[in-house]
């Protein structure tokens, strides 16, 4: 045994290697040399975290070459001649250290006769190593991350991942995500993602984990919410990946709604137990399909060998990098066996290559080995092993794995021809729904009558029995249809959910879903665009709109002359003028028309005086005729002439229409109690300043006004945000109390359904005015990507079709109302007539009777005085016989 620096060259028969294998290190490999026979130089980075067990290397090589004596290189054996405990550094330099500190020593090893190299590389050494191999025509077989190189002497066992990653991102329709990468793995995947992002308008935030400190980790994940980036792609090797996942768990970012896509080929090698428990969605790639025949058989043999050699050590399934190592050794074994069968001379006689020469002298037979390696094709642990002309893996398949709360499942596969092919069937979706009943879900809600209320009972209640209301029964119906267990939890801050403008964090029930503290929200939660960006909604279970609540005004007391209300003041004035005008016209036409003059009928025996004709339509009779026609009572005189009859006819038609219209409105005005509302619409609110108005703080109504581009609503928002004192209220109950205390000086803007409910509650002193300002709906919310979304949506549609939703609303709004029937809240209420409604008619009657008596007295006195003058007697003496 010769000691060269710290690298041993050992020369003993293959049997010695068999004997020494169990005695020496499993994670270090040096070179064994046999006279006139092939050599392999495995170069390993001792600092590598790839998880390689070189027991794989040894067992595969021995399995493939156990029938050969000395035709192929076996393994390097390290022997510890010192009596102290040996360390790794006593026997081997890492390839990184050799290349960086002394390239000449590596070059020296090349010149001593190396047929092929198997090992890993780092980003800082890959170019130098591949340059050596290209210059000397020595093949380098590596399971390391793929690099973009045209060097035909580098065979890359690990398949390229970038195209598969792009396909999965497109499958999930990710438009905005964070990309965490490890620069030591190279930047080819990142470059592909960024190029695709530019084409498809993706928003990608790239973060180099190598330059991220402990504090940066914290701020990095805290900014996820601010940037709305709940999809995170992690492109790191296993050790750094596990560290990042640990940070994610520590920061609590592994809850429902988060989606992590791991750019690794060993999804099954990662411990994701904490993510499964918390409900995060994790997607990744699996190169080795352990359920296939070949991997299953090899794993069983592997397990048996390890149990025999290390019976006290628990067996752990090798990682995908070990599978790549296993297939890599088989690639070399298959290639050398092929060369041997073809009787191609690859002996090291003559020119062995010289990298110290200028220019470097390549090994003559290196091209034969390179061709043999590239032509290898077989089914191995990592599937189909085949290389293209560039030395890259081709015709391989990557399995796409997804992990949710219900476990791990394969959702599809990717290959170069078909790209990503989803394999999740409808039956698998049904199975996912079936698994819902194996877990108790947290249903967040809010105390808001009549949706959720505390039961008023003297008996102590627990769990969901503590509450009652519309949403309580709705949650029970949905759970019954979907088939899961649930627990109602009241949101701690008592808010529906809005994004804080400074911290960019969500509060209320939306925050509970976003941050994974709840699974479902069953509450009067309005479906809005900003909420839909971070959570999913079902179909609306209730339609509504923003409405105006005011204090119910006092009923207007009927006036003395309320019987005049059916017609406007202007109409009454026009009727009076029409009456006078018709009377005057009738008088005039009667005077001018010769047919209106006639002789008086005389008693028998009396002669008719000449030119003694009379006309009945004097001015007073004309007024009397018009009044009688207007009152539809008629008169003892009527026009004789055609012109007079035309005047009478059009007047009768006029009075017919006016009296009919008056009579039609009179019943409504006398039997309906009217309330005079100071406002009737949002426009009325916007153009006045006497009545203040506001909304719920941190809710969809406030967000509606803040985002509206309609002029009226913009004006209202400008007023509300600058009003002092603040017109916003923390709860709907506080808004209702403020309306009642304000004596009509505050209007509250809220959802119409809640407005209608409050209107039905005692003391019945609020009312809804005007129509709805918009149209929207309440929906049941779930976190993004939750498996509950589909089943809950179907349950809502089914309840709607069955009429259950309408029955629930009728029950909690009107059947339990305290202010009468469903229509009792209207502003016009029909009731029986009272004396105050018709008092004016009695006043006119009394006034008319009094006026008649006064006129009669005046006429009597006037007549008596006239007679006394004619008879030349005292007036009082004339009154006595008259009385």
From TrEMBL:
InterPro entries: ANF_lig-bd_rcpt (IPR001828), Glu/Gly-bd (IPR019594), Iono_Glu_rcpt_met (IPR001508), Ionotropic_Glu_rcpt (IPR015683), Iontro_rcpt_C (IPR001320), Peripla_BP_I (IPR028082). It catalyses: Ca(2+)(in) = Ca(2+)(out). The keyword Glycoprotein applies. One of its GO terms (biological process) is cell surface receptor signaling pathway. It is a multi-pass membrane protein. Disulfide bonds join 107-355, 764-819. One of its GO terms (cellular component) is postsynaptic membrane. Residues 440-815 form the Ionotropic glutamate receptor C-terminal domain. CDD domains: PBP2_iGluR_AMPA_GluR1. Pfam families: ANF_receptor (PF01094), Lig_chan (PF00060), Lig_chan-Glu_bd (PF10613). The record marks 679 as: Crucial to convey clamshell closure to channel opening. L-glutamate binds at residues 524, 526, 531, 700-701, 751. The record marks 499, 706, 798 as: Interaction with the cone snail toxin Con-ikot-ikot. It is found in: Postsynaptic cell membrane. Keywords: Cell membrane, Disulfide bond, Glycoprotein, Ion channel, Ion transport, Ligand-gated ion channel, Lipoprotein, Membrane, Palmitate, Phosphoprotein, Postsynaptic cell membrane, Receptor, Signal, Synapse, Transmembrane, Transmembrane helix, Transport. Its main location: membrane. It comes from the Eukaryota. Residues 450-515 form the Ionotropic glutamate receptor L-glutamate and glycine-binding domain. The chain crosses the membrane at residues 567-589, 650-672, 840-862. Receptor for glutamate that functions as a ligand-gated ion channel in the central nervous system and plays an important role in excitatory synaptic transmission. L-glutamate acts as an excitatory neurotransmitter at many synapses in the central nervous system. Belongs to the glutamate-gated ion channel (TC 1.A.10.1) family. This is Glutamate receptor. It comes from Varanus komodoensis.
């Amino acid at each position: 045994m010769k000691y060269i620096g710290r690298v041993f060259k050992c020369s003993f028969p293959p049997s010695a290697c068999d004997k020494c294998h169990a005695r020496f290190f499993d994670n270090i490999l040096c070179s064994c040399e046999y006279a006139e026979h092939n050599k392999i130089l495995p170069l390993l980075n001792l600092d590598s975290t790839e998880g390689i067990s070189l027991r794989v290397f040894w067992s595969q090589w021995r399995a493939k070459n156990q029938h050969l004596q000395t035709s192929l290189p076996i393994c390097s054996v390290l022997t510890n001649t010192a009596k102290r405990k040996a360390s790794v550094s006593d026997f081997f330099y890492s390839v990184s250290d050799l290349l960086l500190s002394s390239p000449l020593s590596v070059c020296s090893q090349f010149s001593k006769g190396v047929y092929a190299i198997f090992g890993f590389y780092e980003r800082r050494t890959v170019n130098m190593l591949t340059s050596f191999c290209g210059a000397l025509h020595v093949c380098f077989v590596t399971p390391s991350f793929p690099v973009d190189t045209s060097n035909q002497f580098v065979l890359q066992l690990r398949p390229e991942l970038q195209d598969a990653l792009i396909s999965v991102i497109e499958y999930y329709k990710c438009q905005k995500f964070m990309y965490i990468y490890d620069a030591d793995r190279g930047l080819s995947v990142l470059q592909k993602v960024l190029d695709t992002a530019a084409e498809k308008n993706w928003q990608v935030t790239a973060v180099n984990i190598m330059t991220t400190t402990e504090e940066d980790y914290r701020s990095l994940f805290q900014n996820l919410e601010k940037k709305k980036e709940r999809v995170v792609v992690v492109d790191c090797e296993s050790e750094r990946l596990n560290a990042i996942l640990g940070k994610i768990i520590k920061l609590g970012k592994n809850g429902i709604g988060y989606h992590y896509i791991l750019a690794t080929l060993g999804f099954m090698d990662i411990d994701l137990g904490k993510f499964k428990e918390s409900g995060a969605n994790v997607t990744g790639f699996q190169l080795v399909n352990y359920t296939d025949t070949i991997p299953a058989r090899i794993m069983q043999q592997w397990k048996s060998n390890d149990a025999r050699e290390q019976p006290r050590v628990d067996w752990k399934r090798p990682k995908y990098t070990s599978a790549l190592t296993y297939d890599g050794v088989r690639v070399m074994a298959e290639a050398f066996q092929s060369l041997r069968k073809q009787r191609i001379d690859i002996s090291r006689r003559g020119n062995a290559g010289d990298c110290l020469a200028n220019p470097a002298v390549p090994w003559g037979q290196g091209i034969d080995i390179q061709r043999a390696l590239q032509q290898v094709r077989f089914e191995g642990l990592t599937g189909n092993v085949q290389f293209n002309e560039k030395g890259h893996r081709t015709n391989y398949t990557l399995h796409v794995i997804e992990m949710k709360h219900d476990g791990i499942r394969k959702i599809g596969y990717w290959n170069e021809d078909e790209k990503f092919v989803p394999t999740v069937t409808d039956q698998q979706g049904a199975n996912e729904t079936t698994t819902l009943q194996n877990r108790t879900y947290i249903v967040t809600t809010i105390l808001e009558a009549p949706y959720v209320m505390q039961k008023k009972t003297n008996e102590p209640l627990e769990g969901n029995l503590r509450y009652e209301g519309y949403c309580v029964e709705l949650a029970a119906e949905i759970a019954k249809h979907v088939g899961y267990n649930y627990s109602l939890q009241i949101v701690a801050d008592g808010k529906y959910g809005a994004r804080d403008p400074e911290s960019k964090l969500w509060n209320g029930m939306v925050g509970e879903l976003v941050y994974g503290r709840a699974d479902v929200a069953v509450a009067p939660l309005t479906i809005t665009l900003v909420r839909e960006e971070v959570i999913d909604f079902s179909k609306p279970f209730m339609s509504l709109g923003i409405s105006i609540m005011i204090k119910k005004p006092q009923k207007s007391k009927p006036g003395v002359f309320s019987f005049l209300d059916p017609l406007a003041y202007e109409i009454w004035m026009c009727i009076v003028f029409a009456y006078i005008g018709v009377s005057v016209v009738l008088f005039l036409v009667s005077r001018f028309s010769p047919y209106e003059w006639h002789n008086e009928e005389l008693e028998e025996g009396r002669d008719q005086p000449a030119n003694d004709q009379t006309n009945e339509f004097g001015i007073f009779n004309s007024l009397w005729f018009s009044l009688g026609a207007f009152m539809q009572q008629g008169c003892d005189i009527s026009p004789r002439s055609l012109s007079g009859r035309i005047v009478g006819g059009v007047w009768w038609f006029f009075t017919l229409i006016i009296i009919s219209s008056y009579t039609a409105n009179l019943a409504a005005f006398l039997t309906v109690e009217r309330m005079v509302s100071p406002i009737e619409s949002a426009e009325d609110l916007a153009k006045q300043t006497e009545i203040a108005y506001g909304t719920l703080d941190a809710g969809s109504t406030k967000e509606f006004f803040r985002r509206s581009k309609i002029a009226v609503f913009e004006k209202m928002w400008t007023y509300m945000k600058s009003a002092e004192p603040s017109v916003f209220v923390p709860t709907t109950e506080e808004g209702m109390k403020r309306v009642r205390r304000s004596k009509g000086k505050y209007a509250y803007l809220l959802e119409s359904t809640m407005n209608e409910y409050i209107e039905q509650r005692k003391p019945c002193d609020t009312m809804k005015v005007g129509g709805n300002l918009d149209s929207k709906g309440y929906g049941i919310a779930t976190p993004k990507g939750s498996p509950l979304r589909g089943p809950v949506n179907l349950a809502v549609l089914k309840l709607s079709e069955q009429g259950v939703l309408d029955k629930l609303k009728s029950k909690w709004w009107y059947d339990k109302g305290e202010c009468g029937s469903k229509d009792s809240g209207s502003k016009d209420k029909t009731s029986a007539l009272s004396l105050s409604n018709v008092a004016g008619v009695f006043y006119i009657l009394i006034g008319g009777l009094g006026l008649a008596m006064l006129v009669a007295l005046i006429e009597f006195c006037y007549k008596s005085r006239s007679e006394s003058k004619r008879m030349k007697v005292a007036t009082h003496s004339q009154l006595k016989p008259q009385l």
